[in-house]
Amino acid sequence: MTDEPFFHRLPVEPDAGLPQGFQCPVGETTYDFALYANFDGGEDDPPETLYDLTVWSRVPQPMDPGLQPLPPGHLVLRVTGPGPDGPRILLLRTLVPEPDLVHEAGPLAVKLVEATVARGNLNGSGHYGSRIVIGVARRWA
What we know:
Blueprint: E1 8-9, E2 20-26, E3 29-39, E4 50-52, E5 73-83, E6 86-95, E7 103-105, E8 108-118, E9 131-138
Antiparallel strand pairs: 1-9, 2-3, 3-5, 4-8, 5-6, 7-8, 8-9
Protein backbone atom coordinates (compact mmCIF):
# COMPACT_ATOMS: atom_id res chain seq x y z
CA MET A 1 0.00 0.00 0.00
CA THR A 2 1.30 3.44 -0.88
CA ASP A 3 0.58 6.85 0.63
CA GLU A 4 1.29 8.68 -2.66
CA PRO A 5 -1.85 10.32 -4.08
CA PHE A 6 -3.15 9.56 -7.56
CA PHE A 7 -2.70 12.66 -9.72
CA HIS A 8 -5.31 13.66 -12.30
CA ARG A 9 -4.36 15.87 -15.21
CA LEU A 10 -5.61 19.45 -14.98
CA PRO A 11 -7.53 20.61 -18.08
CA VAL A 12 -4.86 23.05 -19.26
CA GLU A 13 -5.39 23.99 -22.93
CA PRO A 14 -1.90 24.85 -24.24
CA ASP A 15 -3.27 26.10 -27.58
CA ALA A 16 -5.43 28.61 -25.69
CA GLY A 17 -2.23 30.35 -24.65
CA LEU A 18 -1.15 31.89 -21.40
CA PRO A 19 -2.47 33.34 -19.20
CA GLN A 20 -5.53 31.16 -18.78
CA GLY A 21 -7.99 30.24 -16.09
CA PHE A 22 -10.37 27.33 -15.62
CA GLN A 23 -12.40 25.47 -13.04
CA CYS A 24 -11.84 21.84 -12.18
CA PRO A 25 -13.63 19.55 -9.74
CA VAL A 26 -11.37 17.56 -7.43
CA GLY A 27 -13.39 15.17 -5.34
CA GLU A 28 -16.60 16.87 -4.26
CA THR A 29 -15.23 20.42 -4.55
CA THR A 30 -14.65 22.65 -7.58
CA TYR A 31 -11.52 24.81 -7.56
CA ASP A 32 -10.46 27.77 -9.70
CA PHE A 33 -7.06 27.55 -11.36
CA ALA A 34 -5.17 30.42 -12.99
CA LEU A 35 -1.96 29.80 -14.89
CA TYR A 36 0.44 32.27 -16.42
CA ALA A 37 4.03 32.38 -17.64
CA ASN A 38 6.69 34.79 -16.54
CA PHE A 39 9.37 35.16 -19.26
CA ASP A 40 12.55 37.13 -19.80
CA GLY A 41 13.40 37.98 -23.39
CA GLY A 42 12.48 36.12 -26.53
CA GLU A 43 10.32 38.93 -27.92
CA ASP A 44 11.96 38.59 -31.34
CA ASP A 45 11.73 34.78 -31.47
CA PRO A 46 9.34 33.27 -34.05
CA PRO A 47 5.97 32.06 -32.65
CA GLU A 48 6.92 28.37 -33.05
CA THR A 49 10.02 28.73 -30.83
CA LEU A 50 9.64 26.25 -27.96
CA TYR A 51 10.94 26.90 -24.45
CA ASP A 52 11.35 23.79 -22.31
CA LEU A 53 10.79 24.96 -18.75
CA THR A 54 11.52 21.55 -17.26
CA VAL A 55 15.15 21.40 -18.42
CA TRP A 56 17.75 23.51 -16.73
CA SER A 57 20.63 24.13 -19.12
CA ARG A 58 24.15 24.10 -17.79
CA VAL A 59 26.10 27.07 -19.08
CA PRO A 60 29.44 27.95 -17.45
CA GLN A 61 29.49 31.46 -16.04
CA PRO A 62 32.66 33.60 -15.93
CA MET A 63 32.51 34.09 -12.15
CA ASP A 64 31.15 30.68 -11.17
CA PRO A 65 31.66 27.80 -13.62
CA GLY A 66 29.26 25.60 -11.62
CA LEU A 67 26.35 28.04 -11.69
CA GLN A 68 23.24 26.88 -13.50
CA PRO A 69 21.11 29.71 -14.91
CA LEU A 70 17.37 29.65 -14.66
CA PRO A 71 15.31 28.64 -17.69
CA PRO A 72 14.05 31.58 -19.80
CA GLY A 73 10.84 31.64 -17.79
CA HIS A 74 8.57 29.74 -15.47
CA LEU A 75 4.92 28.96 -14.87
CA VAL A 76 2.97 30.44 -11.98
CA LEU A 77 -0.17 28.72 -10.69
CA ARG A 78 -2.89 30.13 -8.47
CA VAL A 79 -5.42 27.77 -6.90
CA THR A 80 -8.53 29.21 -5.26
CA GLY A 81 -10.99 27.16 -3.25
CA PRO A 82 -13.94 27.64 -0.96
CA GLY A 83 -13.36 29.14 2.47
CA PRO A 84 -15.61 29.92 5.43
CA ASP A 85 -16.00 33.54 4.29
CA GLY A 86 -15.87 33.01 0.52
CA PRO A 87 -13.15 32.01 -1.93
CA ARG A 88 -9.59 31.89 -0.62
CA ILE A 89 -6.24 31.43 -2.31
CA LEU A 90 -4.80 28.02 -1.50
CA LEU A 91 -1.67 28.30 -3.64
CA LEU A 92 0.14 31.07 -5.51
CA ARG A 93 3.52 29.74 -6.53
CA THR A 94 6.10 29.31 -9.24
CA LEU A 95 5.95 25.70 -10.37
CA VAL A 96 9.43 24.28 -10.07
CA PRO A 97 10.38 21.66 -12.66
CA GLU A 98 11.50 18.91 -10.28
CA PRO A 99 9.90 15.50 -10.91
CA ASP A 100 9.39 14.59 -7.24
CA LEU A 101 8.34 18.04 -5.99
CA VAL A 102 4.71 18.23 -4.89
CA HIS A 103 3.20 21.60 -3.99
CA GLU A 104 0.63 21.65 -1.18
CA ALA A 105 -2.49 23.71 -1.79
CA GLY A 106 -4.69 23.18 1.27
CA PRO A 107 -6.45 19.87 0.65
CA LEU A 108 -4.80 19.50 -2.77
CA ALA A 109 -1.43 18.34 -4.04
CA VAL A 110 -0.12 19.84 -7.30
CA LYS A 111 2.73 18.57 -9.44
CA LEU A 112 4.30 19.99 -12.61
CA VAL A 113 4.92 17.13 -15.06
CA GLU A 114 5.75 18.91 -18.33
CA ALA A 115 6.08 22.54 -19.37
CA THR A 116 7.06 23.37 -22.92
CA VAL A 117 5.72 26.74 -24.00
CA ALA A 118 5.81 28.16 -27.52
CA ARG A 119 6.51 31.86 -28.01
CA GLY A 120 3.22 32.17 -29.92
CA ASN A 121 1.28 30.98 -26.88
CA LEU A 122 2.62 33.71 -24.63
CA ASN A 123 -0.31 36.13 -24.60
CA GLY A 124 -1.68 34.48 -27.73
CA SER A 125 -3.52 31.41 -28.91
CA GLY A 126 -2.83 28.93 -31.68
CA HIS A 127 -1.28 25.55 -32.30
CA TYR A 128 2.46 26.13 -31.93
CA GLY A 129 3.43 22.96 -30.04
CA SER A 130 3.06 24.02 -26.40
CA ARG A 131 2.70 21.15 -23.94
CA ILE A 132 1.71 21.80 -20.35
CA VAL A 133 0.89 18.92 -18.00
CA ILE A 134 0.04 19.60 -14.38
CA GLY A 135 -1.31 16.97 -12.02
CA VAL A 136 -3.66 17.50 -9.10
CA ALA A 137 -4.71 15.13 -6.32
CA ARG A 138 -6.53 15.22 -3.03
CA ARG A 139 -4.13 15.18 -0.09
CA TRP A 140 -6.70 13.67 2.21
CA ALA A 141 -10.25 12.35 1.90
